[in-house]
Amino acid sequence: MGNAANKPSTLWGIVLAGGDYTPLAPFVRKLRGDDLPKPFVNFLGKRSALEHAFARAEKLIAPERLLAVVNRDHLKHPEAQRQIGARMKGTVIVQPRNRGSLAETLLALLHVYHRDPLATVALFAADHFILDEDRFLSYLYLACRAVERAPSTLVALGTPATTSHSGRGYIVTQEEPERLRGFGIRRVSSYIESSSVAELPQLLERRPLWNTKAVVFKAFTLLDLTARIAPSLHASMERIGAVVGARKEPSIVLDAFRDLEPCDFSSGLLAHLPQARPDSFMALPVEGVLWSDWSTPLEIVTVLNQAGYLGRANGLTERHLFALWANHRGRRERSQKKNESVLRM
Questions:
Q1: Which residues fall within 8 angstroms of residue 273, CB to CB, at 6 or more apart?
Q2: What is the pLDDT of residue 3?
Q3: What is the per-residue pLDDT across 146-182, written as a single tens digit (0 to 9) for each?
Q4: pLDDT under 70 in the chain at which residues?
Q5: What is the DSSP track for 208-268?
Q6: What does the angle CA 145 – CA 151 – CA 154 come to, to the nearest 5 degrees?
Q7: Which DSSP symbol is given to 33?
Q8: What pLDDT is attached to residue 59?
Q9: Which of 147, 111, 114, 112 is nearest to 8 (CA)?
Q10: What's the burial of 133, exposed, middle or buried (CB within 10 Å: 0-12/13-18/19+)?
Q11: Quick one: pLDDT at residue 318?
């Protein structure tokens, strides 16, 4: 995967690290004694989640074409400054405040589009855990090839949804489109950002995919889709696009983000595409990869246990780990029994 000859010449990457990580803040405070945002925390090994994301993406994407978005208030943390400062000049975009992952994506995308209007772009979350990275990246590369063949499409990578998880997005797929036959890519029939506990068992019967938030698209395609689905946001971003690289860019960005309504990439865009642009939204099922969004302390402990890394977790005592794991295991077994009873009805 690291061979430069195999890297698509127009492939860019965007790593999103500017979200709201407050749900995990109490857990981070126990580990570190401070409020360092989740992507900058070393949960495992010597690198943070963000540094792992960079290393993963750079197996496919040249460092000068890998952009990251962070929040201005991240810069008050010396550790965040250190990690950001290690990146190449011009590859870190600082947004004034969090206005949702779609606005965050577009802010970085304007810089990509300014430099390469025909770019193929791979979007990454900065705070996820992925085991068997090379296998995951082989799927990402396949998605890039598919987007090159069908430039008007957006391809989301999804892992099979094996359990009920009300906090994740679910991608329900249908047939393989003729123009992308052989890629393993499927048309998306619906995207469900959240579901009630009662609805989840019925949803799982449809064999959906969890949204890994790794998405591949042409830069001009995402801008076009945003103009159709979120015209107000697109108009605000056009103001920024007109001054990218100019001296007044920071002040225009500040003004635009002050007035923006928060807009999430998944709920604000993906959820609308199956109805608004049914031929534009595709999904690629990812098999044989352990993926997690690490959304809760219990999720972190569970995944580390699955991966065999539980004993290597940073800042967690064995007693604390066991308590979290035992608590989660009991909850999971109760949830599975409940789902089984519902399915038998």
A1: 154, 188, 191, 225, 229, 280, 281
A2: 46
A3: 999 999 999 999 999 987 776 788 999 999 998 898 8
A4: 1-9, 166, 195-198, 311-312, 314-345
A5: -EEEEEEEEEEHHHHHHHHHHH-HHHHHHHHHHHTTTTSTTHHHHHHHHHHHPPP--HHHH
A6: 80
A7: S
A8: 96
A9: 147
A10: middle
A11: 47
> E-strand spans in the chain?
11-16, 66-71, 92-95, 120-125, 129-131, 154-160, 170-173, 186-192, 209-218, 281-285, 290-292
Question: Which residue's entry shows tokens 């489109």?
Answer: 177
What contacts 322, CB < 8 A, 6 or more positions away? none
Helix (H, G, I), strand (E, B) or coil at 156: strand
Global pTM value: 0.88
> What is the Cα–Cα distance from 241 to 116, expressed in whole angstroms?
13
Distance in angstroms (rounded) separating the CA atoms of residues 104 and 106: 6
Per-residue pLDDT, 1: 46
315: helix, coil or strand?
Answer: coil
Place of tokens 């107000």: 232
pLDDT the model gives residue 92: 97
DSSP state of 119: -
The count of residues in the chain is 345
**One-letter amino acid for residue 319 of the chain:** R
Nearest C-alpha neighbor of 107 from the set 241, 232, 216: 241
